[in-house]
Amino acid sequence: MHPENWIKTDKNGLYCKALNAYIDPMQPVEHAIITHAHADHARAGHQHVYATAATLDIMRVRYGVDHAAHTHALDYEQTFTLHKGAFTLFPAGHILGSAQVLIEYKGSRLVHTGDCKRQEDKTCAPFVPVPCDVFVTEATFGLPVFQHPPIEHETQKLLSSLERLSSSCHLVGVYALGKCQRLLIALRDMGYHEPVYLHGALVNLCRLYQEHGIELGELIEVSSLEDLSILKGKIVLCPPSALSDRWSRKFPNVITCMASGWMQIRARSKQRRAELPLIISDHSDWQDLLTTIKEVNPKEVWVTHGREQALVHQARVMGYKAKALSLVGYGEGGEEPIANDKGGVF
Ligand SMILES: [Zn+2]
Ligand SMILES: [Zn+2]
Q: For residues 116 and 306, is the Cβ–Cβ distance under 8 A?
């Protein structure tokens, strides 16, 4: 039976009648399948949550142990029967624990990617193309102008600046979940083994990643320092919101940096007052979105959020049936896009 008969969108998001479950719902519901723990996808208050163990761990850190009445930890590629259908999680390559959801019902297969990326990321299992009839994807960076450079390239910019401005504290805005840890690993891989200093808001998630066996090197919380002058020539990571607040006013010779896919857009880096913008994204860029559609080769493409129309148009040009679901509320959880990002910068 065609998925349009058993999947619909409503004010809570994407609802699957076959499973009697929502995927990444906006409001508390009875059954929620959570693709990953970014705040715009994972919310507290559901009766039953189905997700990977890592996603559930992150939700516990963020929302407390009682964020849901019941939690069900699923391994990748473990099929779970729910109501009248079945679903299976597959790696999405986005952040630790992130998953795509394959739903199977009456001979049809639908895959929902959640957020996904194709660039290498040592903090999570790589994206797996899963054959399906309907492929549901995001389009956060769904315009041809978006081309994300390799992370080594952007990390080198930071290291070169440190070398050049060796008495400056490099304050880098990073999202607490995913971006922070990925940048740390890139720095270590490129031979930077100095301690990296952290804003308190990043500490718990870094610890959780370390508990999952992901090496991040020596990390020191800024609030534990008595003498801030030792931050000269050092890297401090903080949430984007802390870039411009009073927290850093006593740091020595601050250079403001920001790591985000949006840093490719000059207006955005100005908005963040980033003197050193680093284009590091945990989403697919335009080319990776197209490559993914080709590899999955579904009968139909549905686009959840982001630059839906551009990707829908391109998918049609490539010979696929395509439509926009225009789900609202995603991309506003403080992760990739800056809040209220539908802005007219193009
Ligand atoms: Zn995400
Ligand atoms: Zn998202």
A: no
Distance 40 CA to ligand 2 centre (A): 6
**pTM for this model (two decimals):** 0.93
Q: For residues 56 and 213, what is the distance between their CA atoms, to the nearest angstrom?
A: 16
* Closest ligand, as measured to the CA of 333: 2
What would the CATH number be for the domain defined by 3-145+283-324? 3.60.15.10
Residue-wise pLDDT tens digits, 14-29: 999 999 999 999 999 9
Specify the fold of 151-278. Answer: Rossmann fold (3.40.50)
Token reading at 26: 């906006």
Q: Where are the domains of the chain?
A: 3-145+283-324, 151-278
Q: How far apart are CA 151 and CA 268, in angstroms?
A: 19
Ligand 1 mean position to 251 CA, how many Å?
31
Distance 331 CA to ligand 2 centre (A): 5
**Owner of token pair 């996808």:** 41
pLDDT in tens, 279-333: 999 999 999 999 999 999 999 999 999 999 999 999 999 999 999 998 878 875 4
Strand partners, 300: 134, 321
